[in-house]
Amino acid sequence: MSFQCPLCRHAAVQFYHKNKYRSYHQCDRCALVFVPSEFHLTAEEERAYYDLHENSIEDDGYRRFLSRCALPLLNELKGVQEGLDFGCGPAPLLARILAESGHKLALYDHYYFPAKETLDKDYDFIVATEVIEHLSRPGLELESLWRRLRVGGVMALMTKLVISVERFACWHYIRDPTHICFFSVETFHWLAQSLGAELYFAQDDVIFLRKLCVHPE
């Protein structure tokens, strides 16, 4: 059976790992590890799983977790900036943290804040924390977001990274049935080159991509 990489659309992919729930494959070009679509949850199943999460906008632990992305991003933002919290979930605490420093935030989430008009505007920065591992078409989604980012702006992503196939096999991150795409350092280097972006790892799992010029269509 052949698969196409959902990030770079490359056809050459290899078997990577299999457990009792699903199989995983890796792209030969961008190194993305992904779950074939036959193992994806339905939209109803996915929403039901997200509804089980207990993140709260008043949760100090959740604030500390998101601050690992928010604090280095705030150091990058000069003056009042307009941003998009993409995939913010039902408790958009990251947007609140950034707004507390004076920045203006728009919210988008496929299930909880499905205001698609926010995806038609341009922004000085875009944040997506613990989001891209859930995307069934990360290539299309990230390219679309990149077009909405102004030149000089930062896209801040937060996701756990693939280290090796041995560690992947016992990794808690793959136990979440809504996690279907797994990025690595190599994948982000490919993505930065593809977008013409400046790449910076603010934390092991916090990745900044700065837009240096208008990306050709």
From TrEMBL:
Keyword Oxidoreductase: no
Annotated GO biological process: methylation
UniProt GO molecular function: methyltransferase activity
Transferase listed as a keyword: yes
Record-linked InterPro entries: SAM-dependent_MTases_sf
SUPFAM superfamilies cross-referenced by the UniProt entry: S-adenosyl-L-methionine-dependent methyltransferases
Entry keywords, A to Z: Methyltransferase, Transferase
Gene3D superfamilies referenced in this protein's UniProt entry, alphabetically: Vaccinia Virus protein VP39 (3.40.50.150)
Protein name, entry field: Class I SAM-dependent methyltransferase
